[in-house]
Amino acid sequence: MEKSASIDRSLIELVREVELPFAQEEYNEWITSGEDTRKVDLIAGDYSYLPPKMVMFPSKHLLDEPYRIAEEGFILKPEDSCRGKTAILGCTCGILECWFLLARISLTETTVTWSDFQQFHRDWWTYNLGSFIFARQDYELQLRGTF
Hints:
Radius of gyration: 16 Å
Distance between the termini: 27 Å
Strand order of the largest sheet: 1-6-5-4-3-2
Shape: globular
Order of helices and strands: EHEHHEEEEH
Number of strands: 6
């Protein structure tokens, strides 16, 4: 399933919708196990956008020189599904490594595609977001702030 780059909802809203059933299931398990639910928040969609210095030019994080947080900040097995993915959303606390969403970013001369979304700390959560395909020229104009 492909998604248009001109969707009327924010990425965080789309991700929250996908994550909510998984987060609710975890919350229910915490209640069943006797966890103090005053200490647990429902974590679905609990993201913030990455800071401009990380995504706007001259940074090429969302292009061909990403900071691969999963590979550079954590020890991963060679077959780990996080390999080759880029952080596209970070934690609301401001510490990127705390809670982040990954995606595979693929480039052609004319397009940029975000696909294969994954929550690093919850690899059993599945994302039916499909692919987001952007016209590369428009995408790069956005990253330059010249839209």
